[in-house]
Design a protein that fits this description.
56% of the residues lie in helices and 11% in strands. The chain contains eight helices and five strands; from the N terminus they run βααβααβααβαβα. It has a single domain, classed as Rossmann fold (3-Layer(aba) Sandwich). Strands 3-2-1-4-5 form a five-stranded parallel beta sheet. The protein is an alpha/beta fold and 150 residues long. Strand 4, helix 7 and strand 5 form a beta-alpha-beta unit.
């Protein structure tokens, strides 16, 4: 199974862990990463994630988040097809960077795009018929996966 983790997911383990929600999402992201490392799932990403990570001003955090990216061969280069689809998604209400992530995840044929961004997840749920990919919070998605596996 191919998974696309957006930068909100990749950042989650390095966020302030004082809030319960952040700790729970961190645990979910950590579990997803462990299964990726074990070879159970495959992580794909895109140049959009690289751009967003490169914009992190704290060098230590930037380097730690960068380590959660998959191998460079599975980081999709952004192209005209990606940007055309992203433009369609923007017209549906997606923010530009989110639209590129969704378009790239679709193009990479990921089964799910995981995000800790509530706005993105809510909009994707409302627009699910217009998307070629499921977008979900990692906690919710892992619960669904457990129900499927049970």
């Amino acid at each position: 199974m191919k998974l696309y983790l957006d930068v909100s997911c990749l950042n989650r383990p390095f966020d302030d862990q004082d809030q319960s929600r952040i700790r729970i999402e961190t645990a979910a992201v950590t579990l997803v990463c462990e299964r990726i490392d074990a070879g159970q799932w495959e992580q794909v990403s895109s140049g959009m994630a690289v751009i967003e990570i490169d914009a992190i001003t704290d060098a230590d955090r930037r380097n730690r988040v960068r380590m959660l990216l998959p191998e460079s061969k599975t980081i999709m280069k952004l192209n005209e097809v990606t940007f055309r689809r992203a433009a369609e998604l923007e017209r549906l209400g997606f923010k530009p960077a989110d639209a590129v992530h969704v378009a790239a995840a679709e193009q990479a044929k990921a089964e799910v795009l995981l995000s800790c961004d509530d706005r993105l997840c809510r909009l994707a749920k409302r627009r699910r018929r217009d998307l070629r990919i499921k977008v979900a919070n990692p906690v919710d998605w892992l619960k669904e996966m457990e129900d499927v596996d049970a």
